[in-house]
Amino acid sequence: MRSLILSFLICLSFSYLNAQIYGWEPRGIGGGGAFFAPSINPANTNEFYVSSDMSGMYTTTNFGKAYDLIDFRKIQGGTNTFIRFTNVTGLLYALKRSGDSLYPAKSTNGGNIWTMLPGNPIGVFDDPFYFYVDYNNPDRIILSSYFDIYFSSNGGNSFTSIHTALDEMSGIIVGGVFWDNNTIYIGTNDGLLVSMNGGNNFQTRQTLGIPSTEKILSFVGTRQGTRVRLFCITCENLWAGMELYDYQEFWIKGIYSFDVGGNSWQSRLGDIDLLLEFPIHVAMADNDINTVYLAGSDMWIPSILKSTNGGVTWTQTFKTINNENIYSGWCGDGGDRDWSYAQCVFGFAVARNDANKLVFTDYGFVHTSTDGGTTWHEAYTSTENPAGQQTPKGKAYSSIGLENTSCWQVYWVDESNLFAAFSDIRGIRSTNGGYSWSFDYTGLTANTVYRITGNQNNSIIYAGTSNIHDLYQSTRLKDETLDDDDTQGKIIYSTDKGANWNDLHYFGLPVFWVAIDPSNPNRMYASVVHSTQGGIYVTDDLEKGPASTWIKLPNPPRTEGHPATVEVLNDGTVVCTYSGRIVNNQFTASSGCFVYNPTTQQWADVSHPDMYYWCKDVVVDPMDKSQNTWYVGVFSGWGGAPNDKGGLFFTSDRGTTWLKISNLDRVTSVYFDGVFMTSISDDDRKNEPPNHSLRIYFTTEMDGLYFNNSFDPLDPWFSNIFYYFRQPERIFFSIPYLDPYSLWVTSFGYGMIYQEIPLAVEEESIYSNNNISISPNPASDLVKISLKNIEETRLQIKIYDVLGNEIKAVDCGYYDKEKPITIDTKQFHAGIYYVRAITNKGIFTTNFVIMR
Q1: Comparing C-alpha atoms, which of 269, 165, 149, 158 is closest to residue 209?
Q2: What angle do CA 490, 493, 497 make, to 5 degrees?
Q3: Percent of the chain whose predicted confidence (pLDDT) is above 90
Q4: Neighbouring-strand partners of residue 659
Q5: Where in the chain are the domains?
């Protein structure tokens, strides 16, 4: 009976695994968006974490040579989501973001599972702001809300309030905590709080030597032998919840040190000119009282000042002129972006017991040093450029997993040439099928490229651009943002595969979408955004290029100038969505799905009532030759009527009737695996529902990527597949004659990620040894995996536990059938594991057992 149950569980688990998508690889140029909260593991200083305000949290075990994105279902990143390490193996603490909620959490298994601290004293409608844990005694925790500081002595099972803000307007800022055995120092804007008895009570100590008008912004302490030294940065303008982006408003006033046992704080400002320098972080190792770092900005470029004599003198270590001591990536003096793009250090970490090992983050990048700032190395892209010379322009780079910008589209010009549309980094170009990317182009200077299209043979490609990023996201729906003058609001075009761009038509307003009429190649439509001037614009003489004439179509019913996606059907009919608009903090009923007849020049409102407030993409099903089948993604809004309206909608009659096929709160877009559909034989098609795709994907704002391998609109179900970022935007497939073809997912904050899919995937039964073998089985310390009858293929091995968690991934390069792949399993717990061998020839599966 036990054997029968085990066999059933194996089959059930493996069926679940086979429904998922594996083998994701990030693609892009690396970095580009702000990073925060670097956290170095004291037990292994090659391991550190960084976070993005776009929700990603990343980890590296080789000091920034490669990164893994942590599954958003486990934990998400933010500006203050530091990982707090402890001296207990596997025990970590962090502020965990789940959806819109933030709460203190801990993990007892190295970050695989996080749970809220049971004694969390902060209400559900409030957020925690600062969170510190004693590395040597992890039962001791400091946590703050806007107004209060709390202390726990039992690992978060309960908390006691130890201080309330003296000024309700400013709230409480915790600049840092120094744990010195039974003495605990907390640097705050209300002064220095000290406990001499392990946290039983705290008192505010006088800070003689610091003017009363100055408040502590950043604080650190360290012990070396019997000597204890504290450092702080002060300023005059502080408030709880302030963002580091606002560093110029802090009014930095001083740098001070205090030797415990002395009488007063000593100014350590030295020759630092606070009109030019904005130090916002002070940091030290725990065992060196003389080596101190100040990190911030110097005239809008990153600055790392260092003292080796306790703050008596300071030296600039980050020498940006000619990249004197910096091994740069694509950002650097002379590079694709200069150092003003990085601008300011937003996060700075010193290894706990090694003052030479440093990590800092800024507006776009991560840099590291292993020699105390004597040299610095980029830690965000594949290739670094030599120090002491100009960073080259137009060089190609590959992703190492640290992607945190928003990508709206991947466009194939041909098999080798791709162009990807981004916010903040404009766009990037690949000439080798998407493996590496560059800024090797001219004429494109906008902040954002939103949409690219091309004529029939892509001899000319077109792009809609804007200087206003993140259109139609939750923070980009109001007139005060979207109605700004937009000097980059235009359509541009390229006749050489994206290498050089020229202006086609200048609107002075954001261009969100462009689409060519398949029945008239000289007709193009554009979504132009403005509350009164916005709408769908059209030209009928596209062949004239910059001399083309554009007119605005009449407004569809109910709309208020926020057009979004546009689809032009084969018969010339235009289908579009209008997205959300907020006026006086309320959504207006101006969104929806609309159809335009170019013959009658009339619009029809075909919206479902749930579409009235915040529509996203409309997508036409490519398998319906009549083009009657459409899908529309809808977001729920807030404030009453827009609530609970989100989901994915399906119509098979051009919007006459709609069926809601997913109730997820915010669905963005949908796409179809057309290569899979065309590979289905005629016999297999006979019993399939007509006129719609079977294998479909859709994207959401906070719930990740969903998939259905045999979609039936009358019985819809979708699986949340193993895609680790919470907000995918759109899905694209490579041009269909490539084998293997590839699935690409763009995202709001994780760039692009892709997976190769062989055209003929041979899924083997877990009981079959026809193509894959594993020995020994059962195993203990290692297993050897071999493929049979497979030659000249790239091979990637992935191993999963029974819950579907990826345990190990090995990129084997090109497989040599004479040499089995050996996997070290010493760290595997006893149990059943599943293997997927991903090759150009197919995906092969088996299982093995670890016995202890």
Answers
A1: 269
A2: 145
A3: 76
A4: 650
A5: 2-11+763-850, 34-311, 414-513+521-544, 554-721
Q: Tell me, which fold does domain 414-513+521-544 have in CATH?
A: Methylamine Dehydrogenase; Chain H (2.130.10)
- Within 10 angstroms of residue 318's Cβ, the number of other Cβ atoms is 23
pLDDT in tens, 498-555: 999 999 999 999 999 999 999 999 999 999 999 999 999 999 999 999 999 999 999 9
Domains 34-311 and 414-513+521-544 share a fold: yes
b/e map 494-504, b = 16+ CB within 10 Å:
beebbbebeeb
- Domain 554-721: what homologous superfamily? TolB, C-terminal domain (2.120.10.30)
**Cα–Cα dist 239/233, whole Å:** 15
Q: How many helices (H) and strands (E) does the chain have?
A: 5, 65
Domain spanning 34-311, CATH class: mainly beta
Block residue for tokens 């599954």:
71
Domain 2-11+763-850: which CATH number of 2.60.40.3080, 2.30.30.100, 3.40.50.2300, 3.40.50.970: 2.60.40.3080
Cα separation, 614 vs 608, in Å, equals 12
Work out the pLDDT band at 732, boundaries 50, 70, 90: very high
d(CA 836, CA 17): 9
- In tens, the pLDDT along 269-288 reads 999 999 999 999 999 999 99
Specify whether the CB–CB gap between 83 and 39 falls below 8 A.
Answer: yes
In terms of C-beta distances under 8 Å and separation of at least 24 residues, what long-range contacts does 419-423 make, across chains too?
419/452, 419/461, 419/463, 419/497, 419/498, 420/28, 420/746, 420/752, 421/448, 421/449, 421/450, 421/451, 421/452, 421/463, 422/32, 422/448, 422/449, 422/751, 423/447, 423/448, 423/469, 423/470
| pLDDT above 60 for 685 | no
Residue 832, pLDDT > 90, answer no
Return the sign of the alpha-carbon dihedral for residues 326, 331, 334, 335: positive
